[in-house]
């Protein structure tokens, strides 16, 4: 599940907004990126609610970055549009919280948990500015 279509569209939108000199509305972004407008509008609103974008109303309204690209991590973007941190596997965060009550028998959980930790760290360190380079 790591990179969903919503996460991909969010990153593409932010790249365009980074290069824009004025706020852009969802219709313009949708057209420019060939993304369904209603889907993109939800993504943009999610990012605005999480403080990644500023939303401006009115005739010249639209969306603009709320922070510098170097201050927006991929983990923040993906978490904003997914409603939770991205996961590589569907597993409990601890052996004790295994929904199948088989945590103590799971021999692969330590590996998967370590992998998830490394991916979380990587996404937290990777910024929008890094993607722009």
TrEMBL record:
<protein>
    <submittedName>
        <fullName>Rrf2 family transcriptional regulator</fullName>
    </submittedName>
</protein>
<dbReference type="GO" id="GO:0003700">
    <property type="term" value="F:DNA-binding transcription factor activity"/>
</dbReference>
<dbReference type="InterPro" id="IPR036390">
    <property type="entry name" value="WH_DNA-bd_sf"/>
</dbReference>
<dbReference type="Pfam" id="PF02082">
    <property type="entry name" value="Rrf2"/>
</dbReference>
<dbReference type="GO" id="GO:0005829">
    <property type="term" value="C:cytosol"/>
</dbReference>
<dbReference type="InterPro" id="IPR036388">
    <property type="entry name" value="WH-like_DNA-bd_sf"/>
</dbReference>
<dbReference type="InterPro" id="IPR000944">
    <property type="entry name" value="Tscrpt_reg_Rrf2"/>
</dbReference>
């Amino acid at each position: 599940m790591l990179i969903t279509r919503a996460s991909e569209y969010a990153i593409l939108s932010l790249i365009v907004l980074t290069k824009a000199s004025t706020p852009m509305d969802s219709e313009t972004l949708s057209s420019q990126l060939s993304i369904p407008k209603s889907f993109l509008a939800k993504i943009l609103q999610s990012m605005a609610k999480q403080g990644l974008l500023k939303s401006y109303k009115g005739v010249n309204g639209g969306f603009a970055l709320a922070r510098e690209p170097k201050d927006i991590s991929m983990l923040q973007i993906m978490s904003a549009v997914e409603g939770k941190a991205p996961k590589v596997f569907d597993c409990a965060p601890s052996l004790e919280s295994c929904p199948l009550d088989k945590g103590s028998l799971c021999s692969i959980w330590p590996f998967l948990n370590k992998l998830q930790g490394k991916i979380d760290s990587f996404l937290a360190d990777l910024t929008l500015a890094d993607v722009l380079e």
